[in-house]
Specification:
Layout lengths: L35 E2 L16 E2 L3 E5 L6 E9 L35 E5 L3 H4 L4 H10 L6 E5 L14 H8 L2 E13 L6 E2 L2 E2 L3 E10 L2 E11 L13 E6 L1 H8 L1 E2 L2 H6 L23
């Protein structure tokens, strides 16, 4: 295994470019590998050069054959060399290295309130040398890194907690070397609502891994959406953000995270999701 706004379609010619290195498991100085698929879903992975791990600039992902969305995306953030780059003239496109019918494209997003939502945030990826940052900026727009999100995804009474998790980490924690590794993706459920022949995820997850004063920490979060009103003009009722345990995350996603992440994710204050309320403010996060 290798280490791992509405827009029109553009083409990315990768035929003359070297393969990107993707997610770096040694980024934090402690090996943090990508999650592995449970045996029950290993045959569902789209393969690229005989591996399920598909690399891009500063991130990698695993794509589901059945759902045609990423099961997980893993990315590194170097807060010391972030470049503030525009998204102007960057368009969503399918990855030409993969079969077109293995990816969900604009057929899902045209003429409705569904946004193309980045799993690995564009702003997290634009670091390093200027050419690196520019390539990462472009790579973030591949549909393999995109999932359907309501157009008010981060504009509820929860004050955009989901979209501000990484920012909150850097604001509230003394992150060693301003480096973090992040994992995220949708949760696939058999009962996910079908729209235009595509099952729409109703839950998303994110896992932040970082070092704080020499100690490795991992914090997991779950976003749940209510898509019951999808047929009624795609109106979103509410979404909720929970802080969850690594064990809960593994159960929901059928992914297995490396032992250092499990050890770093132990929390005493986080109870089972059925026994607690959603986060109402960023200050409620246990870092």
């Amino acid at each position: 295994m290798k280490a791992a706004t509405k827009m029109t379609t553009n083409t990315h010619d990768s035929s003359e470019k070297a393969s990107p290195s993707g997610y770096d498991p040694d980024f934090l100085g402690i090996p943090i590998d990508v999650p592995t698929l449970d045996a029950s879903i290993q045959d569902d992975a789209v393969l690229w050069e005989e591996t399920e791990i598909i690399p891009y600039t500063h991130f990698s992902l695993s794509l589901s054959k059945a759902r045609r969305f990423a099961r997980w995306v893993a990315w590194n953030i170097d807060g010391t060399s972030i470049k503030l780059l525009s998204r102007t003239n960057l368009n969503f496109t399918k990855d030409p290295r993969l079969a077109s019918d293995s990816q969900i494209g604009n057929e899902l997003y045209s003429g409705n309130r569904l946004d193309r939502g980045h799993i690995a945030r564009r702003a997290d990826l634009t670091w390093g040398t200027l050419p690196e940052a520019q390539q990462a900026n472009q790579d973030s727009f591949y549909y393999t890194n995109i999932t359907p999100q309501m157009d008010d995804f981060n504009q509820s009474k929860q004050n955009g907690i989901w979209g501000r998790l990484e920012n909150a980490l850097y604001q509230d924690v003394d992150v060693q070397d301003l480096r973090a590794s992040v994992f995220g993706g949708p949760v696939f459920h058999p009962a996910d609502r079908i729209y235009r022949g595509i099952a729409l995820p109703s839950e998303y997850w994110k896992l932040l891994v970082y070092q704080n004063q020499g100690t490795l920490k991992a914090r997991a979060f779950l976003l749940t959406q209510d898509l019951d009103h999808l047929r009624a003009l795609l109106a979103l009722d509410e979404f909720r953000v929970y802080q969850i345990t690594i064990g809960e995350l593994e159960q929901r996603t059928q992914l297995h995270f490396p032992e250092p992440v499990k050890e770093a994710g132990q929390l005493t204050a986080v109870r089972e999701i059925a026994e607690r309320k959603p986060l109402a403010a960023l200050a409620e996060i246990e870092w």
